[in-house]
Amino acid sequence: MAAERTFIMVKPDGVQRGLVGEVVSRFERKGLKLLGAKLMQVSNELAESHYAEHRERPFFNDLVSFITSSPVFAMVWEGENAISIARNMMGKTNPADAAPGTIRGDLGLTIGMNIVHGSDSPDSAAREIALWFNESLADYERAVDVWLK
Ligand code: RTP
Ligand code: MG
User: Fold this and answer.
1) What is residue 146's DSSP assignment?
2) Which ligand is nearest to the CA of 110?
């Protein structure tokens, strides 16, 4: 299977709690390849566009307020099955249901502040990468890649 790309973001709670390194480290150790990363303040426009699928949900305004409340750390990671692998590593949406060993299961408490976002399908990954990264992504080889296939 060809390498897949996914959009991952450490949400404001993760940045405020000093968990950026922990999250990056987990994806690095897994073998995924980092193609882009930036700490950024999210505008209302970007937040509403990112979470457009939830526009009619009762928690939409709270979600937009939360994601714009403090900087996030936005990333693109690449690897075989990167989208589903990252989702599995994140754990279920509600940290109360997320298994130990997952990011949300190990580090989170409530659904409103669940530390990370990850694309949930190839279509959403393509949409989110285009939305969050105007700049070109890194293009490089790693010697370790021969040990990950
Ligand atoms: P995400 O998009 O952030 O990666 O999370 P997800 O796919 O696991 O969950 P999703 O259904 O897309 O929901 C997006 C975010 O909205 C918040 N949420 N709150 N109060 C609620 O019932 C509720 N449901 C969802 C969560 O922060 C979730 O990550
Ligand atoms: Mg989602």
Assistant:
1) G
2) 1
